[in-house]
Amino acid sequence: MNDASKLQVTLPITPDTSAAVASSAMVREGEAAAGPDIKVAARNVDVFYGDKQAIKDVSVDIPERSVTAFIGPSGCGKSTFLRCINRMNDTIDGCRVTGEITLDGLDIHDPSLDVVELRARVGMVFQKPNPFPKSIYENVAYGPRIHGLARGRPELDEIVESSLRKAGLFEEVKDRLDGPGTGLSGGQQQRLCIARAIAVSPEVILMDEPCSALDPIATAKVEELIDELKANYAIIIVTHSMQQAARVSQQTAFFHLGVLAEIGSTQEIFTNPKDKRTQDYITGRFG
Fold it and tell me: Which of 100, 103, 117, 248 is the most buried (most CB within 10 A)?
């Protein structure tokens, strides 16, 4: 029996959770030994909505070509912090962000930085699928077209097909690309939104509870897709499902009351957490 199968799982024991942690343990050890480069770094980040502080002194490193999961109870600040990474909080009146967040060492709040370019480099997939009221083809083609990534229709066709294939959707929709994106099932719509995000060649993909509105079969497809995409992107996923975090991520961060209580390898967080708040949360004592 290998070491991974002997690990005592701190999560409430279910077949899904224990299998997810154990089956990926050896892979994560190999990835940790390789020492992936840091793609996104945050230092001493605070977020305020008016006078209310939502995020308190958060510092975290996000490695490239891996999946980082943000977990924690509702209202703990994990989605708020996620939106800081591509400056989506800029669109909220009264929201103020302090501290430093860098992408490849460059400050994302530098006045000379084009926010539109930042959001192309840091794509986002939201909680509920939100396809444009356009055809499946145009949903994917829209970003590359406005960013000038294609010099003509043949190149655009190639980007659309490649993005849909990466999202595991092309074979299901190749005969109805002119059909409305809103006519797809919920799981297909979410994969369409993922295809739309990767069509502009991002470097980081943010996912805010991408499976919360999906059934188990659609959720499994999205999780398989996340596992495939991590070979090329830094992915950050906010999830309320600890089983999902255990299945898809290599690093997990636990947020509590606006504070980053603990961060570490997913295997370590779920089997040997150092902070009592983390242990209480993942064992179901609160949440």
Answer: 248
